[in-house]
C-alpha cells in the first residue's frame, strides 16, 4: 500500500501537516455486505468543508464544518453551495487520480 510517513510531523510535537485535504475511500471492502448493495463511497475533507459521495447513487453529503461542526445540515442540494460542491468534487477527482496504484515504469515512448 502506498503512503507517506506522518512521523516527521508527529515527532516535532506540533502534529501539523502540510496537507490541504484528507481523502478516504470505501469500495465494498467487507465481504459480508450483500443486501442492500454496499456503497462505493469516497470522502474529501478540508479544514472547512467535507464532501461524501456515494458512487452510482447520485447522492452525496456536503457540510460546512465551521457553520455546522456536528454535520446536521447537508448542503448537497443547496443552490447556494454549488461553487463549494464543485471545488470539493474537483479535489475528490484529483485525489482519486493521484492515489491509484502506480503503473510499472514506462519502457517505451508509446
TrEMBL record:
Q: Which Pfam families match?
A: SGSH_C
Where are its TM segments located? none
* SUPFAM superfamilies linked to this entry: Alkaline phosphatase-like
Annotated N-sulphoglucosamine sulphohydrolase C-terminal domain residues: 1-94
**InterPro entries found in the cross-reference section:** Alkaline_phosphatase_core_sf, SGSH_C
Question: Which superkingdom is the protein from?
Answer: Bacteria
Q: What is this protein called?
A: DUF4976 domain-containing protein
Organism from which the protein derives: Devosia algicola
Amino acid at each position: 500500500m502506498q503512503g507517506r510517513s506522518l512521523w516527521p510531523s508527529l515527532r516535532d510535537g506540533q502534529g501539523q501537516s502540510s496537507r490541504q485535504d484528507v481523502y478516504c475511500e470505501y469500495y465494498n471492502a467487507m465481504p459480508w455486505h450483500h443486501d442492500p448493495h454496499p456503497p462505493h463511497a469516497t470522502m474529501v475533507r478540508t479544514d472547512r468543508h467535507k464532501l461524501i459521495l456515494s458512487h452510482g447513487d447520485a447522492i452525496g453529503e456536503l457540510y460546512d464544518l465551521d457553520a455546522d461542526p456536528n454535520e446536521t445540515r447537508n448542503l448537497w442540494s443547496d443552490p447556494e453551495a454549488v461553487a463549494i460542491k464543485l471545488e470539493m468534487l474537483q479535489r475528490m477527482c484529483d485525489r482519486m487520480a493521484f492515489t491509484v496504484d502506480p503503473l510499472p515504469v514506462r519502457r517505451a515512448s508509446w
